[in-house]
Specification:
Layout: H1 3-16, H2 20-31, H3 36-43, H4 49-88, H5 107-121, E1 125-126, E2 132-134, H6 135-138, E3 158-160, E4 166-169, H7 174-183, E5 188-197, E6 208-218, H8 223-238, E7 245-252, E8 255-268, E9 271-274, E10 279-289, H9 291-296, E11 305-312, H10 313-321, H11 334-340
Parallel strand pairs: 1-5
Antiparallel strand pairs: 2-4, 3-4, 5-6, 6-11, 7-8, 8-9, 8-10, 10-11
This protein binds 2-{3-[(4-chloropyridin-2-yl)amino]phenoxy}-N-methylacetamide (2NL).
């Protein structure tokens, strides 16, 4: 077929291609490997020079025209397709939103909330303070002498402070209580939850962990107040009325007398649970605030007495929710959090709590 006739036929074919697939078929039949225009191009090779000079430009121009016409038709078909979709498709604003990934509350945060809730019921406020402390608030005011092993470089993270002073990552939350005693008048009833740091790392110790301490300062405070408070707190926390306490004499520089507190456990359905007294495990340290500590905070120990206690929040979480490896708390493994994490709506209700 001569180039002019072929051009006419292909122009008709392109114009009548009603969709992209039909247009593609026309393209392949025209300028594809064995297309009609391609076949015409191939005849040039067998021509003598004069015929080639005459026919060459016609055939090449035919190829260009066809290619351009196909591109134009393709754009028109795509526009038409877009118009059709814009007319027929619409956004349904009434559909529910696609769900985005939702986080969960870390067990340590959940337990801190539970503890704050329980102690709020008992009239304790939450106190907070800096994690980078000076030597005086972290050690000296707490009757921890210069030679005490807690001050050892190996046990504590020191850093340089301003004006040639030395600062320390607080090793307990006690400095928060020191600050409260310095700035507020008794009676004082506070808990101090938060991060604390020790240079210690193995299966049962992480260099950062969470502690909660409690402090009561008032007139006429004695060990009976301490024991009742701890018993009431532990029964509310473990949600069992049969939690039994055992207090053993102990030593802390900042309390006198000092007592370690064990809770009784028993075996239920093959698992060890808090409650009863088949065996004992240590959960708290406690005691009557040392007169030297009270005096260091500017209060008269003859007038004001108090009790204090401290425990690990991570450990309490492990005991209450049956977790077995302390290190998993800080791995950031989302699978672990999915298993143990709490929904933001799991506010601590404490059905077996203090007020109940
Ligand atoms: C433990 C023991 C304890 C305290 C913390 C305290 C705070 C002040 C004064 C006196 Cl300001 N005492 N805190 C008392 C006894 C024990 O913690 O085993 N913690 C993990």
């Amino acid at each position: 077929m001569n180039p002019d006739d072929l051009k006419q036929r292909l122009t008709d074919d392109i114009a009548s291609a009603s969709d992209l697939a039909a247009l593609e078929a026309v393209r392949v039949a025209a300028i594809g490997k064995s297309g009609s225009v391609t076949a015409l191009l191939k005849t040039l090779g067998a021509m003598d020079a004069d015929s080639r000079a005459a026919e060459g430009p016609k055939i090449h121009s035919l190829r260009e025209c066809v290619t351009a016409a196909i591109a134009e038709r393709k754009a028109a078909l795509e526009d038409a397709e877009l118009d059709r979709r814009l007319k027929t498709e619409h956004v349904d604003l009434s559909l529910p939103a696609r769900e985005s990934p939702r986080g969960s509350v870390h067990p340590v945060s959940q337990v801190m909330d539970e503890l704050a809730e329980i102690f709020a019921d008992l009239g304790f406020a939450v106190a907070e303070g800096p994690e980078i402390e000076d030597d005086w608030h972290n050690f000296t005011a707490l009757n921890i002498p210069e030679t005490h092993p807690a001050r050892d470089m190996h046990d504590t993270f020191y850093m340089a402070g301003e004006h040639d002073t030395q600062m320390v990552l607080r090793t307990h939350t006690s400095p928060v209580q020191i600050r409260t005693m310095m700035s507020e008048k008794p009676p004082i009833r506070i808990i101090a939850p938060g991060r604390v740091y020790r240079s210690d790392s193995d299966a049962t110790h992480t260099p950062m962990f969470h502690q909660i301490e409690g402090l009561v300062i008032d007139r006429g405070i004695h060990m009976g107040h301490l024991k009742w408070t701890l018993e009431t707190f532990l029964r509310a926390f473990f949600e069992r009325d049969d939690v039994v306490l055992r207090m053993r004499p102990s030593y802390f520089p900042f309390t006198e007398p000092s007592a370690e507190v064990d809770v009784g456990w028993s075996i239920e359905k093959g698992r060890r649970v808090v409650g009863g007294s088949e065996g004992w495990m240590e959960v708290l340290g406690s005691g009557m605030v040392h007169p030297k500590v009270i005096a260091a905070c500017g209060l008269d120990p003859a007038e004001w007495q108090g009790f204090a206690f401290g425990t690990g929040v991570d450990r309490l979480a492990m005991l209450k929710y049956g977790m077995d490896d302390l290190r998993a708390f800080f791995d950031g493994d989302l699978r672990w959090l999915k298993h143990y994490g709490f929904s933001a709506f799991d506010v601590p209700t404490l059905s077996g709590g203090v007020g109940a």
